[in-house]
Design goal:
The chain is α+β, with helices and mostly antiparallel strands. It folds into two domains: 48 residues, no CATH class; 124 residues, Glutaredoxin. The protein is built from eight helices and eight strands; from the N terminus they run ββααβααβββαββααα. The strands form three sheets. It has a four-stranded mixed sheet, sandwiched between helices. Strands 1-2 form a two-stranded antiparallel ribbon. α4 runs parallel beside α6 and α6 crosses α8. The two termini are 20 Å apart.
Length: 217
């Protein structure tokens, strides 16, 4: 378990019908309950169900950032070896949490400092634009999202320089946790400390010991 709270929903046979990693706002949690209670896990992906049943007021547009890689996206790490890790942001237009990520998360100096260590690509979860993935596949954004089982937006999937996924953020995060997730990968801490919660606690203690301020919420 990497995020708290984490919720596991089981079906009548004891199999996991749905897993929610981290905080979900009330309207999405309500949709998750309906998804499991209605036994929709065998009918559609949770991401598709959320898109249809859990919309919140949002700007209805994708936000641009100067650190995004230019399109069309060619993320093939074998053909284009890179010294920097890769962060892929999956979002969609009708997404209040995506709006907040851009307005608050990406504007925080601590977050921007960590992002500078990465190649960052933005992908529209249900988009039809083609992407060359870190493993060299040519897929539409929607196909890639389904292959990676992305159900929440915004989700950030981190890849190492060789194109292997090493970590992902698929829950609502405040700036401290967002900056920490980038640092977790950039510093290589994920190799030594597989539990992100323990890493967060240790990082917060280091910052406080140095006289810094940690704003968890």
């Amino acid at each position: 378990m990497q995020f708290t709270p984490t919720l596991l929903f089981f079906d009548e046979k004891g199999a996991v019908a749905l897993r929610l990693n981290g905080f979900y706002p009330a309207h999405q949690l309500h949709a998750a309950l309906d998804y499991v209670a209605g036994r929709h896990e065998g009918k559609s992906a949770f991401a598709d169900y959320l898109a249809r049943h859990a919309r919140a007021p949002a700007t209805g547009r994708l936000h641009e950032q100067p650190f995004f890689l230019k399109t069309p996206l060619d993320l093939d790490r074998a053909r284009k070896p890179a010294a920097r890790p890769l962060a892929v942001l999956f979002e969609q237009k009708q997404c209040a949490a995506c709006d907040e990520l851009h307005q608050q998360g990406f504007s925080a100096p601590a977050v921007r400092a960590q992002i500078a260590q990465f190649d960052v690509a933005r992908v529209e979860l249900f988009g039809q634009q083609r992407v060359t993935t870190p493993r060299g596949q040519s897929l539409t954004a929607q196909q890639w999202g389904r292959e990676l089982r992305v159900s929440y937006t915004p989700t950030i999937v981190f890849f190492d320089a060789g194109g292997a996924e090493v970590f992902r953020v698929e829950a609502y995060l405040r700036p401290f946790h967002l900056a920490s997730s980038f640092d977790y990968v950039a510093s290589g801490a994920y190799r030594k400390e597989p539990n992100f919660q323990r890493y967060l606690q240790a990082r917060a203690e280091r910052i406080r010991a140095a006289g810094g301020r940690v704003d968890l919420w």
